[in-house]
Structures are given as structure tokens and as C-alpha cells.
TrEMBL record:
Domain of life, per lineage: Bacteria
Protein name (record): Cytochrome c biogenesis protein CcmG
GO molecular function, one term: oxidoreductase activity
Organism of derivation: Suttonella ornithocola
Gene3D superfamilies reported for this sequence: Glutaredoxin
Organism phylogeny: Bacteria, Pseudomonadati, Pseudomonadota, Gammaproteobacteria, Cardiobacteriales
């Protein structure tokens, strides 16, 4: 059954990437903790970096797991070895609060961005925070609810590098 789930996950993501870019991929597996997006949702409500690949993260001040993963995201943002850009977006706390939290956690490589778009969660069909999505050309292709870890980051690297190698 696990094989069928992985096969389905790969087919869905391959299909989404084919629709978005016109390229197909062979055997590029998503990280185990991510699920393929049901459809390629374009993130247009926020100003994303102009990057082909983005790891998009939603967090809030009240969310302890969110605060725990921010240093992980910051460390990734510091490194130039990853084939993606990190974009962490605070929900509803404001940039001043985000900046204060970044100071407390010694976050130096992420911008303290915040949005008051409360309907962003419902638009993206997010069930909880932290929420992380892999974006290709600003469209969601895979997503995860829950904290990221080093294995997730390595798996995201492998997935994107595999895709780039198959173009």
C-alpha cells in the first residue's frame, strides 16, 4: 500500500509540474511528510520572492511549533547550497511582533514579514500551523502541516534537484 501511495504522490506532482511548466519528471519523490497539492494554487495574495522554487511557511506568534522551526528555516536561508528560497510569513501578529520574535530567536536571514489576510488559511485550505508549501513558479505543488525538520529540508533539496536534473 505504501508503494501505491508513493506512486500516486509522484504521479500527482509530476502531473502538476507538467501542467505548470510543460516538463515531465521521472522518479522525483516528494518528501515523505508532504502531500501533493490537489491543484496548483497560485499564491497571489502576498508578495513572494521572484524565485523559481520557494519554500513558503506560515507561522504565528502563539504557535510554539512555529517558533521552534523558525531557527531551522533561518539556518536554511543562511546557506546558499539550497535550490530554493525560504519565505516565512507571520499571520495576523504584525511586522513589529514578528521582528521582536525574530530578535528573541536570533533570526537573521529571514525578513519579519506579516499579513493580516485571515482568509489566506481558508484560501489555501490550511488546517493548522505551522504550514509549509513547496512552490514552483509561485504555485503550490506540495504542502505540509506541522513542524519541519532537517530530514524534510534534505528531502526538499533532493526533490528539487531531481526535478531540475530532469528538465
Amino acid at each position: 500500500m505504501k508503494f501505491l501511495e508513493l506512486n500516486h504522490k509522484m504521479r500527482v506532482v509530476s502531473f502538476l509540474l507538467f501542467l505548470i511548466s510543460g516538463w515531465s519528471i521521472a522518479a522525483c519523490y516528494l518528501p515523505d511528510t508532504f502531500k501533493a497539492a490537489d491543484k496548483a494554487v497560485l499564491i497571489s495574495d502576498v508578495s513572494l520572492p521572484k524565485s523559481e522554487w520557494t519554500v513558503f511557511n506560515l507561522w504565528a506568534a502563539w504557535c510554539a511549533p512555529c517558533r521552534a522551526e523558525l531557527p531551522i528555516l533561518d539556518k536554511v536561508a543562511q546557506s546558499e547550497k539550497h535550490p530554493f528560497t525560504i519565505f516565512a510569513l507571520n499571520l495576523n501578529d504584525g511586522e513589529a511582533v514578528a521582528k521582536e520574535i525574530f530578535g528573541d530567536l536570533k533570526i537573521e536571514h529571514l525578513a519579519p514579514m506579516s499579513t493580516a489576510e485571515t482568509d489566506l488559511l481558508s484560501k489555501l485550505d490550511v488546517i493548522g500551523l505551522p504550514y509549509t508549501a513547496i512552490l514552483y513558479q509561485q504555485k503550490i505543488i506540495a504542502e505540509k502541516n506541522g513542524i519541519l525538520n532537517a530530514n524534510d529540508i534534505s528531502a526538499i533539496d533532493a526533490f528539487i534537484n531531481c526535478y531540475k536534473g530532469n528538465q
